[in-house]
Specification:
- Helix content is about 70%, strand content about 5%.
- It is globular, with a radius of gyration of 22 Å.
- Helix 17 crosses helix 18.
- It folds into two domains: about 80 residues; about 350 residues, no CATH class.
- By secondary structure, it is mainly alpha-helical.
- The strands form two sheets. Strands 1-2 form a two-stranded antiparallel sheet. A two-stranded antiparallel ribbon has the order 3-4.
- About 40% of the residues are buried.
- The protein contains 21 helices and four strands.
- The longest helix is centred in the first third of the chain and has 30 residues.
- A hairpin with a 2-residue loop joins strand 1 and strand 2.
């Protein structure tokens, strides 16, 4: 049992957090009412500095929960308070700022990064410096757009190192995996109810269509029945309502829940009830299938493949019900997607083909069009090439390779980390969602936690904990 003093300290800490959180909410409402987009930064900065003093696990869960729901809450706030589009784009970017502050403080409070002369840190340093040089010397006409798009390359690194510096232990990994599984299950349940029973009513109440037009500046013709066009998929003349869930975007929903599916798979040994675990996995799988997102299907397949090899290595069988459900659900849901892809009936397929056809012409502009330049082709790698140029793309690919090679040297948790890395890298060919916080931040954090299993980092952290214990 906890001592009275520790309980009192915890109570005081929680009270302070609630007090500062209340101040942050007041600042947030004031920023919205007075359309002060600079003032809107303050609540997130304030909260970021507060939650770093909470338990590491709680601070991570708070950050991940906000990232998951921001695309749903912000349109509702925009509808309630109004304000200019710039302010809401700034608010939408505050997840990255919060993560950066958490990362910086954790760096200063835990380990000296310069003691870790590893290939992944060297590649990260090179990528960051090169990206900032390109941002300074070669950007588009809009500074705001350039700053907003600078996060394209930074998001994977920021969230990976946030997980990388999170104190690694089996218990902490268990808690994070279970939390991600629960968050994904909640998102899946809500998404299924919304898509199958609520129709357009929930998102109409949230005024999602107005938000996409006035803040994201999409043409009015993009809306269908008052909702963004990508909330639906037209396959062979049949209009399908996609699962959007708490993520506020079907692509983000597909990616996030696909990562949650992988987390739930590898959390199998942490569930007391096999039935509860299997039910959670199947609900997430069904929701992913009904997002009709091809990249998410690829991620689920890759994660299941790694999970199969993992269970085979430890000599434990895979649930036959899970295998049957995976094949059945993906076959039924993916049939329309595959047919429409092969027959070129789906609009996104034509967009991807157009992007690949642009590659020969892009070789004529090896240094890109400038950070913040619009009109880039689909896909994470082509997006980086379009804005930052081939050298930055090469540095980014080098960084991804070093991430995988580092995971390959880890004696445990290899399969989970490798499953997420490989699935994100493959889907980056057809989608840029691996570069967004709402879609992929959970994946990068889990990869970072896996990377923190290296012996050298573990020893450094153990030394820090011993010093902290002496100080206390």
């Amino acid at each position: 049992m906890k001592s009275t003093s520790s309980l009192l300290t915890s109570s005081v800490r929680n009270t302070r957090f609630l007090f500062v959180a209340a101040i942050a909410c007041v600042l947030f409402v004031a920023a919205a009412v007075y359309n002060a987009h600079y003032l809107s930064v303050l609540p997130f900065v304030l909260l970021a500095f507060v939650i770093i003093y909470l338990d590491s696990y709680i601070s991570l869960v708070l950050l991940l929960s906000w990232i998951a729901v921001q695309n749903t809450l912000i349109p509702a706030m925009y509808s309630a308070f109004g304000g200019g589009s710039t302010m809401w784009l700034v608010i939408l970017s505050m997840s990255e700022l919060t993560a950066i502050i958490l990362l910086a403080v954790r760096l200063l409070r835990t380990i000296n990064v310069f003691d870790l002369r590893s290939a992944i840190l060297i590649s990260t340093f090179v990528l960051v410096v090169a990206t900032l040089v390109v941002f300074t010397l070669h950007r588009g006409s809009s500074l705001f757009s350039a700053v907003y798009n600078l996060r394209t390359v930074f998001i994977p690194m920021v969230f990976l190192f946030l997980g990388y510096l999170y104190f690694f232990s089996r218990d902490e990994m268990r808690r994070v995996l279970v939390s991600v599984s629960v968050l994904s299950t909640i998102g899946a349940v809500f998404g299924l109810i919304d898509a199958l029973f609520l129709g357009r009513h929930f998102w109409a109440i949230m005024h999602m269509g107005n938000y996409w037009i006035n803040v994201k500046h999409l043409p009015k013709g993009y809306l269908y029945r008052g909702l963004p066009g990508n909330f639906y998929e037209n396959y062979g003349g049949q209009l399908l309502r996609r699962v959007v869930s708490i993520y506020g975007d079907p692509l983000a929903a597909g990616y996030s829940m696909a990562i949650g599916f992988g987390a739930a798979l590898f959390a199998r040994d942490f569930y007391r009830s096999k039935a509860l675990w299997l039910g959670s996995v199947l609900i997430i799988l069904l929701a992913v299938a009904l997002t009709y997102t091809r990249a998410a299907y690829i991620m689920v397949f890759v994660e299941f493949l790694f999970y199969y090899f993992y269970r085979r290595k430890i000599g434990k069988p895979i649930s036959k019900w899970l295998f049957i459900a995976l094949i059945g659900i993906l076959f039924v849901a993916a049939t329309k997607v595959i047919i429409s892809t092969i027959t070129l009936q789906n609009g996104s397929t034509l967009i991807h083909l157009h992007a690949f056809l642009q590659i020969p012409a892009m070789f004529g502009i090896p240094f890109g069009h400038g950070v913040g330049a619009s009109g880039g082709p689909e896909g994470a790698y082509l997006e980086i090439w379009w804005q930052f140029g081939l050298p930055i793309l090469a540095a980014f690919v080098w960084w991804l390779i070093e991430v995988f090679l580092t995971i390959d040297r880890i004696p445990y948790n290899f399969y989970m980390g490798a499953a997420i890395v490989v699935s994100l890298v493959i889907t980056g060919v057809i989608s840029q969602e691996m570069l967004t916080d709402t879609a992929a931040s959970i994946g990068w954090i889990l990869i970072g936690m896996t990377l923190s299993g290296t012996d050298k980092l573990r020893k450094l952290k153990r030394g820090y904990k011993e010093q902290e214990g002496v100080a206390r």
